[in-house]
Amino acid sequence: MEKTNNAPCLCGVSEYMVLACSGACDLGQITDLVARKLRDNGVRKMNCLAVVGAGIEKSIADFKTKNILMLDGCPIDCGKQILDKAGFENYTYLRVTDLGFKKGQTPVTDEVIQIVYEKSEVLY
Prior knowledge:
Layout: E1 16-20, H1 26-40, E2 45-46, H2 49-53, H3 57-63, E3 67-72, H4 78-85, E4 92-95, H5 110-120
Parallel strand pairs: 1-2, 1-3, 3-4
Helix pairs in contact: 1-5
């Protein structure tokens, strides 16, 4: 596959990592933006949930040694299911609907992102 973008990858592995469902609905977009904000503010390194879903064993083994925060948008729990199927046992979990937001009815605003961010940044 030919590389088409010279932008550096912003994924990272550190002691504290965040993964987001990044789904297609409003809540998935919110989890993605919150994870990026955690990364940009130096709270956690963001990495790709797709790496786990794809079964990249070297990365999975490394991730299992880290303090992971998994952000899911809705009760389908795609991110949680991916981690559980890959054998993750110790990770912190936040589902956006548990904060009172509704799938398909939550505007992606700075205010909503800040509310979810503030709940996320203190979870360890």
